[in-house]
Amino acid sequence: MTDMPPAILPPERFQQRLLAWFDAHGRHDLPWQHQRSPYRVWVSEIMLQQTQVATVIPYFERFMARFPDVASLAAADQDEVLHLWTGLGYYARGRNLHKAARVVVDEHGGTFPVHSLEEMAALPGIGRSTAGAIIAQSTGRRAVILDGNVKRVLTRLHAVAGWPGRPAVERRLWALAEHYTPDERLVDFTQAMMDLGATLCRRGTPDCARCPFADVCVARARGEEKRFPESKPRKALPTRTTVMLLLQDREGRVLLEQRPSSGLWGGLWSLPQFDDIEALRAWLDARAPGSELEPAWTPFTHVFSHFRLEITPQPARIGRLDAVDEARCWYDPADPASIGLAAPVKALLASLAPFALTTTAGP
After folding, report:
1. Domains of the chain by start residue, with CATH
2. Straight-line distance from the first to the last Cα atom of the chain, in angstroms, rounded to the nearest whole number
3. Residue range 313-327, pLDDT digits in tens
4. Burial of 117 (0-12, 13-18, 19+ CB in 10 A)
5. Beta pairing class for 273-274 and 239-248
6. Catalytic residue among 45, 224, 278, 326
7. Is 251 noted as a catalytic residue in this protein?
8. Could you tell me which SUPFAM superfamilies the record lists for this protein (predicted)?
């Protein structure tokens, strides 16, 4: 443990303080804490990646109602999985959830390999920390976690300098997490570490007055609570532009096409996209001759983690369209199908009045 900064407390004292706080103030009634199983814990952990608990709860409950076990999830079509994921964002999580379910069924006989951290971490979309959380919370066996909440807690308690995404900094945090993790009460300890970060040691406004470690926190002693954890060095987000075609037929249906399985909005259904209006016109001339363009809607911006996408919705009425292939479909806003939709596309479709094209509408 040469990478580990000086510990603020011996492991036993750290555990005692944390668990006493958790028993009095922790979260004990989250839906995945009841009928706790590797499957339910896994789904919750994937949904909770970069998403707050309050947002996740209704998605989790709908997901469990439709897919109560890993076999039902593995047997589902990806479209239905992504439909239930629509709105949670970071859609690679939903695709990997589906892939992992099929791996568990096909390669592990429908049973999660919770006996092995390495086998759990090898499942699509899981990784070391999530594997540890699933094992600890579903079996009670000792496994170490280091999610975003835990990183924030440990970084502040020990004033660990540097962006936690850097390998050297992450090694120090793993060493601390390993040092403090007990051999008993793993379910509660794991939840307590996550709760402490989510409810007290928050990103922007830590509630130090109620923290069980306020008297030993190095960042607080320095008056630098808000400095830690240090942010990733920022680069200006580049802006890309796209024109989305809102092509409606006489019945008010809208043409959608499925995105490639990898890349932006992978596997989701979207409006046809073009680099510019000239490319859109050329596509209409070739595929839907006689179509009439309406005035373009006001452009809006959708922000991703690594770039900004400026979207110009371009409505059109169809004259004639060649046969729709498997990668395209007609979507009826008045009777929506259960398919996964990219968030801005969902907003655009929701703005369409049934059976009519409103040229002044917008997302």
Report:
1. 11-222 (1.10.340.30), 239-352 (3.90.79.10)
2. 52
3. 999 998 766 667 778
4. middle
5. antiparallel
6. 45
7. no
8. DNA-glycosylase, Nudix
